[in-house]
Amino acid sequence: MQTKTPIGILGATGIVGQRFVQMLEHHPWFEVAWLAASDRSEGQPYAEAARWRMKTPIPSRVAEMRVSPVKPEAAPKIVFAALDAAIAAEFEPRFAHAGCAVVSNSSALRMQSDVPLVIPEVNPEHIKLLECQTWRRQSGGFVVTNPNCSAIGLVMALAPLEQQFGLETVMAVTMQAVSGAGYPGVPSLDILGNVIPYIAKEEEKMEEETRKVLGQLNGSGIVPGAFGMSAQCNRVAVEDGHTESVSVKLKKKARPEEIIAAWNEFRSAPQELRLPSAPEQPVRYVASADRPQPRFDADCGNGMTATVGRLRPCGVLDWKFTVLSHNTIRGAAGAALLNAELLRVKGYLD
Ligand SMILES: NC(=O)c1ccc[n+]([C@@H]2O[C@H](COP(=O)([O-])OP(=O)(O)OC[C@H]3O[C@@H](n4cnc5c(N)ncnc54)[C@H](OP(=O)(O)O)[C@@H]3O)[C@@H](O)[C@H]2O)c1
User: What is the pLDDT of residue 1?
Assistant: First the structure.
């Protein structure tokens, strides 16, 4: 029997950390061997430190593991990172410096010029950027990131359009689930029966990360996508799943059936390489007039498929549509897991 590779999780007790624990329970290649969080949790059994919010039971082997401090000395060589951005900015470089492969969810280093910001279906070639990192040359360690949870769903829908027709302008308005704010996140009295038209730094992240992922690798950097981009972000009283209303102007004329085929037929490296967390269909189009909806569509493809619907002409740009993706799976833990699987088959985790 093949032995699994031990991995650690930074920020293991949070919402994304818990999603990692859940998704790794039956993973064929990786096994949770080490968990780290703040000094609030340090030394406690994981089941006591984490307020478990997943719908499946907490894995018994992990439940008994003691939570470690966020220090690289005792960590495995591969760590998934789900720390708050301010903490990540301090600790992720320390782990990379110590020789760890850091597969991060945090925004702290995403826009650093030598840090790959990767969605394996969209820009797998960008992982070559990590060869430019000083950590990689000095200790073998590196940092790879995935985009923000709202940028991922949007880019999944845009990538097939960019490839086939070219993007000129993109406008997106989000309706983002409360789990995107972590735990305990937004107070219930602020969000119940309400919409909050502000999520700190989210619009900036969507605009710059979307351009970086859809940009071109040029030696030691990325030339960002040249399309115009405007995002408006809202928090809504939904548990899981970010919904986005999108309008696009395309460089080439496209008929609706060509756009729908571009989404439904989109396949890429994770499907060709049969990565364990890759969905069969990364983007699917639903024809029903009132879909996608978070309640019915967020879990599609084990939470790794982005669902698009409501394609129709736009009176200002060319086309408008709705896209939905699971924010803590495709938008966070699943995104990082797929990045790690890609890194492994490309030999970066040896
Ligand atoms: N939620 C999403 O949908 C989503 C999507 C994409 C990206 N992200 C990003 O992923 C990261 C984690 O998000 P989350 O939603 O899981 O947040 P969360 O539920 O608030 O969890 C935060 C984690 O960070 C740990 N932590 C906090 N302060 C620390 C410190 N001083 N030292 C060490 N560890 C500390 C916490 O440990 P304790 O429990 O011990 O306090 C907890 O494990 C953030 O950067 C977020 O922006 C989240």
Answer: 56
